[in-house]
Write a structure and sequence with these properties.
CATH class of the largest domain: Alpha Beta
CATH architecture of the largest domain: Alpha-Beta Complex
Mean pLDDT: 91
Number of domains: 2
Radius of gyration: 19 Å
Low-confidence stretches: 2-18
Helix content: 25-40%
CATH superfamily of the largest domain: FdhE-like domain
Structural class: alpha+beta
Shape: globular
Length: 306
Amino acid sequence: MSDDPGFAAFEEVGIAERDKPPFLRLPEPETLFDKRAARFTVLAPGHQLEAYLAFLGGVSQAQATLAAAIGAPDMPSPGDLRMRAGNAMPLLPREELATDRSVSEAFDRLAALLADVSMPDLAREALTRAAAAGPEARQAMFAAVLADAVPVEAVAEHIFAAAALQVVAARRSALLDPVLPQPVADGVCPCCGGPPVASAVVADLHVEGVRYVQCSLCAAQWNHVRVKCVSCGSTKGIAYQEIEGIADTIKAETCDECRTYVKILNRRKAPELEAVADDVASLGLDLLVTEAGWRRAGVNPFLLGY
């Protein structure tokens, strides 16, 4: 593991190389989950987590089918959205999803789609239990995912719940006016209030070299200054950790002020990187960084058991 304050691998272009990049990039549910499924499929062969990555590829493909099949979700009134934006609040508070009937309906449809997905027997049993849960138990399951408070003994059930929540949340955020969401707080999605899964230095036209943080729930992306802690906003004590001998396209940005880290993906070098899939596939980096004393600031619902 290296400690490189200069972060030379990501510094081909300066921090302020782009004037006023768009603050927000809304999710595109019609392609989001298809791309994620494809990335899991590419990452799986020969990987130490091959079976799990292949399983998550199947889950992501089911999410893609679900995203294309469900109707438009209910949205707050334009007045409510403007009020929340004016008060630096998330526009679509994720807590509301725990009791939203559309989430439970999406979960039922996802469970049916997963019937044909290959998975371990224990995962199949967990899916059966979750699908059979009554309204109160199901709401409690959704609430636990949204509060990042999943009980250790029921991780498998909650992975499926999180998958349904991701689809509904992405569909909701995709309907927002992209100029309406405003910065809320460090490490908080301006659309749904969720924590980040990872960040990326992008290579897209007009925002090449700019950093965006991606929400772990709705997949909205918001602009965040590089060499600045995603969690606490500090610019002091920032360093970049990597696994020696492994491609330097994924690093952990560590902060000595709050002792947290968030991964940063370099899509300028590897455009194929996908936040959720490559975060799971780089679990070894998490293990090294946490062993060195930092705690993960981001959340990945597919890493709930780690």
